[in-house]
Every structure is written in C-alpha cells, then in structure tokens.
Amino acid sequence: MKRNREKNNKDFITDGYTTDKIKEVIKEIREKYKIEELNSVLTETEIENIKKEYTFFNSRYPFLFDMILKKDLDHNRLNYMLNLREKIVNNKTTVEKASEKLGVEMYNEYHKK
Question: Is residue 5 helix, strand or coil?
C-alpha cells in the first residue's frame, strides 16, 4: 500500500505517529505477541488479529507493520529508517534525499553482493 507523495510533502508526519510513538507501538506488538520467541512464522489468523487490534498502525505504516511481524527483524535497519524519518521531521533532510540514501545503501548491501 504505497502512497504517492509530492516532493517535500510531510503530510505523512502530521497525520501519523511521532517517531517515539512508532517505536512504542513496535515494541508493544513484538512483546505482546512474543515475536522474538516464535519457533515459526505467525499464522494468517494471528496476523489478522494483530491487524484488527492495530488497525491504524497497519493502515498507516504497512511496510513497517509487515517488517515488525518477522522474528528476524533487522533492528539496526529499523532504527536507521526511523532515524532518517526523524531527520525529515526535523528538516535536516528531505524525503527525496532520505529515500535516495536508503535506496543506494540497500542496493549496495543486497544487490552488489
């Protein structure tokens, strides 16, 4: 569920959660559903239940939602992305520059190898 955004459009900030609130919800979901302790992936039923309980988070941050339901969540990547988001919020970078930086780094890490 990707949304098209205009350049420097920060509506995604004003109509969503703060970065701290996002981190809080992520921690809550992962602890409540003991995702770190899972022996396998969540069932479709479990995922649907979490989606119902966290409807706003799921609809507003679908990429993050899918990411945090995985046992092998890359916490470093998650924190890096949230820190980039915070830089956008604080006008230290633009959406375009942050997206380009992340894209280049991920390409270099995953595609070049």
Answer: coil
Task: Give pTM, 2 decimals.
Answer: 0.80
**Interatomic CA distance for residues 67 and 77, integer angstroms:** 10
Q: At what angle do helices 75-89 and 95-106 cross, to 10 degrees?
A: 160
C-alpha distances out from residue 49 to 52, 53, 58, 94, 107, Å? 5, 6, 11, 35, 34
27-77 per-position pLDDT tens digit: 999 999 999 998 888 999 999 999 999 999 999 999 999 999 999 999 999
CA 6 to chain CA centroid, nearest Å: 20
Q: Give the number of residues written for the chain.
A: 113
Give the start-end residues of each E strand in the chain. Answer: none
The SS3 call for residue 97 is helix
Which 8-state DSSP code applies to residue 108?
Answer: I
Cα–Cα distance for residue pair 90/83, rounded to 1 Å: 11
How far apart CA 106 and CA 87 sit, in angstroms, is: 19
